[in-house]
Amino acid sequence: MKIDRRSFLGLGLGAAAGIAVSPVGVKLTDDSSIWTQNWPWTPVPEDGEITYENSVCSLCPGSCGISVRKIKGRPVKIEGDENCPITGGGACLHGIAGLQYLYDPARVKTPLRKNGKRFEPISWEEAISTVAGKLGEIRENGSDTLGLITGGAQGSMTGMFRRFLDAFGSSNAFAMPSLDANLELTAQTLHGAGKTLGFDLENSDFVLSFGAGLLEGWGSPVACYKANSSRKERHGKLYQIEPRLSNTAANADKWIPCKPGTEADLALGICAVLLSKNLFAPGVYPGGLNRFTANVTKQYSPENVEAITGVKAADIEKLAVEFANAKNAVAIPGRGRGDQGQSLREFAAVQTLNALTGRLNKKGGVFIFDKESYLSFPEAAMDEIAEAGAGKDKQAASLDELVTKINASDAPLLNALFVYNANPCYALRDPKRVKDAFKKVPFVVSFSSYLDETAMEADVILPASTFLERMEDVPSGGGLAKQVVGLARPMVNPVFDTKNPGDALIALAQAMGGTIAESFEWETYEEALEAIAESVWETLSEEGYAVVAEGNPEGIPTTNFAYMADMPDAVQAQGDGKLILMPIDNMRLTGASSPFAVKTVSDKVIAGKDVVVEINPATAKGLKDGGDAVITTPVGKAKVKVFLNEGMMPGVIGMAKGLGHTYDNPYVAGKGVNVNDLIAPVIEPGSGLDAAFGITASISKA
Amino acid sequence: MSEIENKAENGSMDGAGECTAGDPKDDKGLGLGVIFFMGAFLICFLSGWLLFPKLLYSKKEQPFNFDHALHTGEAGDCESCHFLREDGTFSGIPNLESCMECHTDEPMGETEDEAVFCEEYVAKEKEVPWLVYARQPDCVYFSHAAHIMGENAKGKIDCITCHGHIGESTTSRPYEENRITGYSRDIWGKNIWGIKKNSWDRMKMDDCAECHVEMDGHKGYCFQCHK
């Protein structure tokens, strides 16, 4: 016997075969695949005790209650809060993605100061003393040259900023366009100052919506979603009037397409039918109804309205009768989200319809609320400069008018500007002109959490903690039929070196000294909030909510027809193109979009990096579905993709709003174009609102 | 015969001659090869079967011995300690607070294990670091509520179906941890071949699927368990 090559071969083969038929192979394959899931560099969320804490979302005016799921104190998920009087536990896709904003790549991580074209990080102490020093100089030479732009006009945080302006000696506080402001202006015009409107959609059996995107983010979105769902159980009706078969229109019982920007004319046409058929309800009309009746029936006969709106005269008459005979009906104004590109004429025309059919303060109708303020600020300390500044008029009636005036003036109209919770350099029409105006303001201070389009234009950024990192009162608005204030509480310590803007403002006031410091004699914003929200603080801090007003107010409010009787002119789209470009509100792209929300946008809205425009096949001569095209308006030009859509009225091009961000967030920016770049504002005489519902445009094959 | 034919004949003869001449020697070589083959096969097969599991798993002892039988006798059924919380989550291993509903830092019985528990954990208010035999990997989402709270037999599975007769045990067996994956041996099952006799013998994905097919006629979808 000799051990040779073959013996070794036998040995090797034997070993291999032995291993192969043993469990080693199967087991190791299985284990190694599990091992790959446990590589030490794969992040594994820490396990621990699960807790829930309630807060309020303030990403949009919805004021929805949220329940934050935490593991070992770390927030991991946001859900709806079942006890929330507004949503009853519902939440939208932005709310549930709220945690993404904490770690947004564009967050401002520390105070910044602009040096040339770049920002350099500075300490909070340095930032506050820089701003205080600069403001001190400016105050010496005219205190009314400090301006303020805020996102909304409600709540204690805006109150604090306005108080700072009062104490400084300026009345130049402006807010971004909002549904709240539009409703307030409407109420003021028709029912008197200090009032606002709330729509009882939950109890209405017939909602006549003049383009209100009830499923596109109008008002308080989750509350609208809920009211729409319950409508089906209640067998209520929804008629949607707008040029496009939107989600809301598709969900409605009837879609009534009308030409863009003619919603007010249709409302007035219905009013005319009601008045001529004597179908209107008695009301309290100081100043009378006669002049309005005479003018509206003359100008807005069904035939005239058919020519303006494209809705058949017979249909208008039928609709008027149906609306007048419905039990708990309500008409709601505000195209899309109801915030931008709205006209007072339209809001007032729709509300006139409510008034004429006796829907005021009725269940399922519209409530005329006194603008209850649960906040009471102690009187601000004023020195001579402040007194002098308080006597001066605001530079403009609205933010859009201010931008126009700054650009038109040679000398700086404002020497300093505060921006809080607003992104006008993106969100206003023709943002290029807004950026130009910002460049003409020598000193801009931003309180933004993100280095967005507007913060980029700032000289100093005092970064704000996000809504999950700070305390704040969040008043409801958005046309809700109740007035609720919620309390947002810090769910997590600030992730970066940011502050509650209220605290930043207190620090700034203290650094300014004098009566400004005296007006801000609180240690912290939280202490200030407790003091100024004293009337509701106990409920607010214990329950997380306080209901300020609920149910229909008593009595029939007065309606003054003077404004409508004057028959204000309709706003026309700028330019002489044949088609109308209309922005489309989309629930997934409202406000500051999260990466999660942007991921859910359909490829009928954005295809790759190109924005998709909707156009009726009859209008799209020579354009192919999915093909490239160029759209041109009097203010801009953009490359787009075409989506032929029968649900778009002929003659109209629809483009999604909320795309084309240019700031440093790869998940949200660099996608499509900003529709505002293509639309110029049209200021409505009287209201000062930018009422541009769209702009004329032409489209051609690329 | 031509030269060519001769060559051919010789050639073939040569070949045949070599073959026959080499046979006896080669037979021996092959035989040895077979022996080596068989030997190596047997050794490797047996080590793969018997030795490999011993190498693959490390044994760990529980902090102290736990007598389930004694506790079910005293406290009642499984739900006395392992229950669903109000929010639908499962309490799993009871925490110290739950134990202290009965136990104090003075032992109730006379066992050495209880003495350890009282001295080391209750007195020091320290959670017991139990090793959990049934812990699934992190990528698996399992809801106890969905499996025990149902209205019909499908959703009303008793504890034994998956956990076996652990409630009758008097001692805690050693916890065997897979050195590669870090998970308990109970998931793959005691049997290294993956053969099971009882429904509770192993708890891999196929075992979940097996029961789901039986109950629902369908394996279920990926995201039901992998969220």
Distance between the termini of chain B: 86 Å
Count of helices of chain A?
A: 23
Rg of chain B, nearest Å: 31 Å
Q: Which spans of chain B have pLDDT < 50 for at least 5 consecutive residues? A: 1-24
Number of strands of chain A: 26
Q: First CA to last CA of chain A: what distance? A: 87 Å
- Let me know the average pLDDT of chain B: 84
Class by alpha and beta content of chain A: alpha/beta
* β-strand number of chain B: 2
- Helices and strands of chain B, in order, run as HEHHHHHEHHH
Low-pLDDT segments of chain A: none
Task: Identify the strand order in the major beta sheet of chain B.
Answer: 1-2
Structure overview:
The complex is a heterodimer of chains A (702) and B (227). Chain A is of the alpha/beta class. Chain A contains 23 helices and 26 strands. In chain A, strands 5-4-16-15-14-6-7 form a 7-stranded mixed beta sheet, covered by helices on one side. In chain A, strands 20-25-22-24-23-26 form a 6-stranded mixed β-barrel. In chain A, helix 4 (124-140) packs across helix 18. Helix content of chain B is 47%, strand content 4%. Chain B has 9 helices and 2 strands, in the order αβαααααβααα. Chain B has helices at 3-56, 68-75, 96-99, 112-122, 144-148, 159-163, 185-188, 205-216, 222-225; strands at 57-60, 175-178. Chain B has a two-stranded antiparallel sheet with strand order 1-2. The chains are: A alpha/beta (702), B mainly alpha (227).
Question: Summed up, what is this model?
Answer:
With 702 residues, chain A is α/β, with parallel strands linked by helices. Chain A has 23 helices and 26 strands.
Strand-helix topology:
The complex is a heterodimer of chains A (702) and B (227).
Chain A: H1 5-21, H2 24-36, E1 50-56, E2 65-71, E3 74-80, H3 93-96, E4 112-115, E5 118-121, H4 124-140, E6 146-150, H5 155-168, E7 172-175, H6 179-191, E8 195-199, E9 206-209, H7 221-234, E10 237-241, H8 247-251, E11 254-256, H9 263-276, H10 290-299, H11 302-309, H12 313-325, E12 329-332, H13 344-356, E13 366-370, H14 384-390, H15 399-408, E14 416-420, H16 424-427, H17 431-439, E15 443-446, E16 460-461, E17 472-475, E18 483-488, H18 501-512, H19 514-519, H20 525-532, H21 534-543, E19 545-549, H22 562-565, E20 579-584, H23 595-599, E21 606-607, E22 610-615, E23 628-633, E24 636-644, E25 652-656, E26 695-701
Chain B: H1 3-56, E1 57-60, H2 68-75, H3 96-99, H4 112-122, H5 144-148, H6 159-163, E2 175-178, H7 185-188, H8 205-216, H9 222-225
Antiparallel strand pairs in B: 1-2
